[in-house]
Design goal:
The protein has 341 residues and is mainly α. The chain contains 14 helices and five strands. It folds into two domains: 108 residues, Tyrosine recombinase, N-terminal domain (DNA polymerase, domain 1, Orthogonal Bundle), CATH 1.10.150; 167 residues, Intergrase catalytic core (hpI Integrase, Chain A, Orthogonal Bundle), CATH 1.10.443. 50% of the residues lie in helices and 4% in strands. Helix 2 crosses helix 4 and helix 6 crosses helix 11. The N and C termini lie far apart (66 Å).
Length: 341
Amino acid sequence: MTKNELEPISPVEAKEMYLDARKNEVSQSTLDGYHYRLKHFIRWCKDVEGIENINSLSGRDLQRYKTWRRDDGDLKPISLEGQLDALRIFIRWCGSIDAVETDLHEKFEALMPSLDKNDEQSESILDTDQAKALIEYQRKFEYASRPHVIMEILWHTGIRLGALHALDIDDYDEENERLIIRHRPEAETPLKNGKEGERIIALNAEVCRAIEDWQDNHRHEVEDDYGREPLLTSRNGRMNRSSIRDAVYMVTRPCYYADCPKGRDPDDCEAAEYGGYSKCPVNVSPHDIRRGSITHFLTEDVPEKVVSDRMNVGQDVLDKHYDKRDEEVKVEQRRDYINGI
């Protein structure tokens, strides 16, 4: 089909149709990821190129977008690759509904950035020493507060942000000292891997005590919109994902529990102000805590299969994206195994 035979459609309408077509196929978090990666393309079409109909998109347009997005977002190669790959899939779908030429998605082969091994791995991580220092501070000065419980659970279990957000009071098994991770998309708390993400996670005594004291002393007695009793609450109901993320950004700033490694004065730092925590150059996200937790367990000689099952991550993905042990640590761990045979 030639461009003249295509059916006119705006970038925004095409994106909304695409998200609507995928919403019953993927989790909400995956759908949110599609929206995030495509919104920059929509912005480029509207504000940079003035494109009102995507029928005329060409390989040259895609090349211009790649250059603009790389510079506009100051993106690393791995981030740029992820956004271009999401756009490639979207463009292929657009070809299937006569919105663009059917072979346009093939142009991406020449656009994808070349990645070396270091590009393919994120280095952002909360390491063991930082995690221990932060949690020790919270246990002493902010015990059983909401940020303290968030950190205890994230570090000890390595669960994803979505799984933490989904927890109810009933998901904490006090008698057996366990958390039950459940997939409940009908109540707006899906897991990234759906039913396959469901599992039971053993807890240690310190984490259990923090959870119980949070429930008894600080948790708001509220329900969410589905009549469930969330574990993490605000005054209005279940604590939302963005608020959990903000709490992590707040407490993982080194100035929160120690000294600023950048020598900044907290009184003058924009990252010390409410709403500006994410601007700190050295704090971390919930996913960085997950990465650090996985690395910590592996460093402590917990078998990879156990870590894989506990954290709900495939061993191949674990090796490539989560295991941040340096080679010296791995060599000595292998030596210990061999010496014990």
